UniProtKB/TrEMBL annotation:
Membrane keyword on record: no
Residue stretches making up the Smr domain: 723-798
Class in the EC hierarchy, top level: hydrolase
EC id: 3.1.-.-, 3.6.4.-
Native organism: Adhaeribacter terreus
UniProt-recorded name of the protein: Endonuclease MutS2
UniProt cross-references to PANTHER family, sorted A to Z: OS10G0509000 PROTEIN, OS10G0509000 PROTEIN-RELATED
Gene, per the UniProt record: mutS2
Keywords, ordered alphabetically: ATP-binding, Coiled coil, DNA-binding, Endonuclease, Hydrolase, Nuclease, Nucleotide-binding, RNA-binding, rRNA-binding
Region entry Disordered, spans: 693-714
Assembly, per entry: Homodimer. Binds to stalled ribosomes, contacting rRNA.
UniProt record similarity statement: Belongs to the DNA mismatch repair MutS family. MutS2 subfamily.
Binding site for ATP: 344-351
Length: 798
């Protein structure tokens, strides 16, 4: 049941219906749009929605589905059903082309793969039959321009040939006569043959009409020219007329036979065109769904509304045309909270929220997809009752309130557990105290009848009633009380304030009037509204605070994660470095012994020759400087694991130059490198080997070391986390990757990127094999597809 009778106009559905009509391809679809109505059968509504959803997906998939030649031929079929009648060529053309569309649609859904994707659309054509022989018979007679083919029958072809031959003869004869008349000056120099009364004639100047024998068929409006059929072409014109009559008789005979052949197929054809009309109708619904960004919610048999991000369809389309956004609503009516009582300031969106509920639910139960977000759920209602006080005439106040009372009578008498009641500005139209009392009584009755509903009001007694009674929940349209601007956001769980006094003060109403109104309203009402205002302010502040806390928490979680990863990395690195150092020490000892033995052997073999001995000692010295000293220095660095303190001699990890630690602040340190203070991460420093200062000449310390430290500091600042090795030889690329990775590990970079391109994949594989073999590498993955995909490796370091 729908109430009132003009429900569609009140709720705005008539405009939705007009939009659907504009999306139809033919009157076939219009027929179903105009018959569309509110349904309360779950299985039927579900089937209609699934059909629309399947067509919507079919369109979005870009499927090659026929959408041309949706002709409405029902009038042609009615004419063809009468014995001894025939259809004209244009009618047969429309039948032929539309039958091809129907057959192409059936063939499309006959594909087994397609059938599984669109089962409900496939089912539409289950009983539709289009004989291929019928299309072939029409095709034999009618071409794709809607004309009868010249070779439709042998007789028609012969008549056509004879007709063309006689017309050629006629043209030649009349051109000869016209040429002679021009030479005599009887006709104008630019005159040409023309048709009058179906016969070929020539235009002659009126004063010379007696100079040429023939029959005058017509004259010009001025009377200066007459149209004369020369006597020599009488017979040829007669022959052409006879041939045209014969051709027309043969044409009628062919069309009559074709109509007779069509007549037995008319019952099947009516079903086929009903199918075509349904496809047109469903397509229009799918186009509307695309315009509204509509979806298919999860359906329930019982009454239910759980809509996320719902939008008023007409408001959405209007704003879309203006490139503006609509504030969506989250609307929920469940068994425990059946009635939503919405309050708030005027022009705050209360009526829009109510109309959104009514229009969207009505659309759903008419088989239309609705503009709600993913994860929404919707149920079925048997009735929708609507009371919207659209009349604003002061002179009509009494009749307006009487109308409201009449509506309330219908609601309390007929609304039940499966009814949706929509009431706008509940209780208005009469004296506030009495109107509020009646409204509260009606609300209590409706709540006892377990109806579902959305009700808007300004009355405080109704807000208080909702707070105290189960089944009813307050809702507020949020409002920025500082700017006095509506936010158009619906919030369930609390009532809203009308902000009447505040708005009056904001727009500049005289102060004494505002104060007088405040006095008249009373302290309790003002206190109540101010409490709501304060709650709104506190809510806004709390939301901002919570958002900031969430942001800070995310930063903290990230920092903790990075710290834990760095700590684990350092522990692993320490163990690995010590193990590696021990291994290198053993190898170095072995190489040193071999070098010493080789030196002794050289001296013995040269019999202590001075020159040979000097060379051997020189080789040993070079070996010591190159191999032994650096390794001893590294091992000595590892030996001292005491925490760094101000005053310690330190070096950057992996560097030989040293400086003095001036101070430590948290995870950073201030270091004096060659007279220049630098801020570095504490984790990037290590204690310098004993006697390091003495190993460097004074001059080098003052110049070279300073430059080294400055270069290192610059390198840390300028380090780029992205390396591009595209076009490099494999060995060169791998060398760069090794150095790049080592630098990143040393500087504590958490993530780096290596651009290697796709190519044959060999370079990518070689680089990734190396990276995955390194302990310090946590993971290697492809970059996002929009930023290079598998042509870029994203490396996360431990």
């Amino acid at each position: 049941m729908l109430y009132p009778q003009n429900f569609e106009q009140k709720i705005g559905f008539q405009q939705i219906r007009e939009l659907l009509e504009s999306y139809c391809l033919s009157p076939l679809g219009l027929y179903f749009v105009r018959r569309m109505s509110f349904l309360d059968r779950f299985d039927l509504v579900q089937r209609l929605l699934l059909q629309t959803d399947e067509y919507f997906r079919l369109m979005n998939a870009g499927a090659d589905f026929p959408v041309q030649y949706y002709f409405d031929v029902n009038l042609h079929l009615q004419r063809a059903a009468i014995q001894n009648t025939f259809l004209d060529p244009q009618a047969f053309y429309e039948i032929k082309m539309s039958l091809k569309t129907i057959r192409a649609s059936l063939t499309f859904f006959a594909d087994p793969e397609v059938e599984t994707l669109y089962p409900n659309l496939k089912a539409l054509g289950a009983n539709v039959l289009v004989e291929r022989a019928l299309i072939a018979a029409i095709e034999k007679v009618i071409d794709d321009n809607g004309q009868v083919k010249d070779d439709a029958t042998p007789e028609l072809a012969r008549l056509k040939r004879d007709l063309i031959a006689q017309q050629v003869v006629l043209r030649k004869q009349i051109q000869g006569i016209l040429k002679h008349a021009k030479s005599q000056g009887w006709v104008n120099a630019d005159a040409e043959p023309t048709i009058r009364g179906g016969r070929l004639v020539i235009p002659i100047i009126a004063e010379h009409k007696r100079k040429l024998k023939g029959l005058i068929h017509d004259e010009s409006t001025t009377g200066q020219t007459v149209y004369l059929e020369p006597e020599p072409v009488f017979e040829v014109n007669n022959d052409i007329k006879d041939l045209e009559n014969a051709y027309q008789r043969e044409l009628i005979r062919i069309l009559t036979l074709l109509t007779d052949y069509l007549r037995p197929h008319i019952p099947d054809l009516k079903k086929a065109y009903q199918y075509l009309g349904l496809l047109d109708f469903i397509r229009a619904k799918a186009v509307l769904a695309r315009e509204l960004n509509a979806t298919l919610p999860k359906l329930h048999k019982q009454p239910l509304i759980k809509w996320k991000q719902a939008k008023h369809p007409l408001l959405f389309l209007s704003h879309k045309a203006q490139q503006r956004d609509v504030v969506p609503l989250n609307l929920e009516l469940t068994h425990g909270h059946r009635i939503l009582l919405i309050s708030g300031p005027n022009a705050g969106g209360k009526s829009v929220a109510l109309k959104t509920a009514g229009l969207v639910q009505y659309m759903l139960q008419c088989g239309l997809l609705i503009p709600v977000g993913e994860g929404s759920e919707a149920g079925m209602f048997e009735d929708i009752f609507l009371d919207i006080g659209d009349e604003q005439s002061i002179e009509n106040d009494l009749s307006t309130y009487s109308s409201h009372l009449q509506n309330m009578k219908q609601f309390v008498n007929f609304a039940g557990k499966k009814s949706l009641v929509l009431i706008d500005e509940f209780g208005t139209g009469t004296e506030p105290i009495l109107g509020g009392a009646i409204a509260e009584a009606v609300l209590e009755k409706l709540n006892n009848q377990k109806v579902y509903g959305v009700i808007t009001t300004h009355y405080t007694n109704l807000k208080n009633f909702a707070e105290k009674n189960q089944g009813i929940v307050n809702g507020a349209m949020r409002y920025d009380h500082k700017q006095l601007q509506p936010l158009y956001q619906l919030e369930a769980g609390k009532p809203g304030s009308s902000f009447a006094i505040e708005i009056a003060r904001k727009i500049g109403l005289p102060k004494e009037i505002v104060e007088k109104a405040t006095t008249l309203v009373g302290k309790d009402k003002i206190r109540y509204d101010r409490l709501l205002e304060q709650l709104e302010t506190e809510k806004n502040a709390l939301e901002k605070h919570n958002a900031e806390l969430e942001k800070q928490q995310r930063k903290l979680d990230k920092a903790v994660k990075e710290y834990s990863a760095l700590k684990d990395h350092l522990e692993e690195s320490k163990t690995e470095i010590i193990r590696e150092a021990k291994g290198k020490a053993k190898l170095l000892l072995k190489e040193t012994n071999q070098q010493i033995e080789s030196t002794i052997s050289q001296i013995k073999n040269s019999q202590a020759d001075k020159e040979k001995t000097r060379e051997a000692r020189q080789q040993l010295q070079e070996f010591t400087e190159k191999k032994v000293a650096p390794e001893v220095k590294k091992v000595s660095r590892l030996a001292d694991n005491r925490p760094l303190q101000p005053g310690d001699k330190v070096t950057l990890i992996g560097q030989d130059s040293y400086g003095e630690l001036v101070g430590i602040k948290g995870k950073t340190a201030e270091v004096l490198f060659g007279g220049m203070k630098t801020i570095v991460k504490l984790n990037n420093l290590e204690r310098a080997a004993a006697g390091a200062a003495k190993m460097k000449p004074e001059k080098e310390t003052a110049s070279g070391s300073g430059r080294s430290n400055m270069n290192m500091t610059s390198r840390m600042a300028d380090f780029s986390p992205t390396l591009d090795v595209r076009g490099e030889r494999a060995e060169d690329a791998l060398t760069k990757v090794m150095a790049f990775t080592d630098d990143a590990i040393m500087l504590g970079i958490p993530e780096i990127k290596i651009i290697h391109g796709r190519g044959t994949g060999i370079l990518k594989q070689m680089i990734r094999d190396y990276l995955r073999s390194q302990r310090e590498v946590a993971s290697v993955a492809d970059e996002h597809i929009e930023r290079g995909g598998d042509g870029v490796s994203v490396v996360v370091l431990k």
